């Protein structure tokens, strides 16, 4: 029971960090185009993240059961503690340097690394783990393509309208698209924390299935909402201005694209990186408007961070597991 309490505390800390780390992704476009004032945008995102977190549990069940079977694994609670320490450390490091890394990659890589350190490669559920990795890889590519298409359609639609009027229209539309994006973020990302807590509960023999208790839903939703209310201004600057100089039409197209991709993944029960999806949608909409306007050097550094997150967090979690197991 002591280990479970420790796990819940670490999981909610991770969820809180996820909230202020990934808030930037949900509201960066609306803040950078001045569609929403920063303080209101953070509060708005916090409320809708909380609501989104309570909507479903399909993603939580994928995290809780597809990476490894918590019923047939040794030292499950220690595995989860090691994974959470690794994911929290990576989240804080990337937040400090203003890098929009993926909390999803960090958590999934950490859990896989801790499982391997505990029970070897065969302990991973390779079919389920592969499905999750495929979703993480395909979703940003899809966001890039969909963002390009949506922006291209919008360009054709408003080609004879004055730029002033276009900006005015789409700055208004961004109020709704930013809210939809925040709701989508909460619906996918908070479930990852629910899933890791359920994994620990099953591994610790406190429950026998992957159903998510209401108390876990509420705790994860509130924790993410509180984290979101803190904001992540370093990452807002990177996402909102360093990839491309955003205009309201780009911001709306990016928000709409990422919401569609994230909501689709949530409906399928697949955890995706909201960071990857949102950043890729911004790249896609920027490329559709003017390919050279996208700062591909910054985009390349972001992509590099995405690639290295899984192996680094996996190794870090394995190291944490070995250290913790010496004492427990």
UniProtKB/TrEMBL annotation:
A Gene Ontology MF term for this entry?
A: phosphate transmembrane transporter activity
Concerning Pfam families, the annotation shows:
PHO4
Q: Which Gene Ontology BP terms does the record give?
A: phosphate ion transmembrane transport
Q: Name one GO cellular component term.
A: membrane
Give membrane topology per the record: Multi-pass membrane protein
Sorted alphabetically, which keywords does the UniProt record give? Answer: Membrane, Transmembrane, Transmembrane helix, Transport
Q: What is its main location?
A: membrane
| Membrane-spanning ranges | 42-64, 76-98, 104-124, 136-154, 298-319
InterPro entries per the record? Phos_transporter (IPR001204)
Q: Where in the cell is it found?
A: Membrane
Question: In its UniProt entry, what is this protein called?
Answer: Anion permease
The organism is Collibacillus ludicampi
Primary gene name:
pit
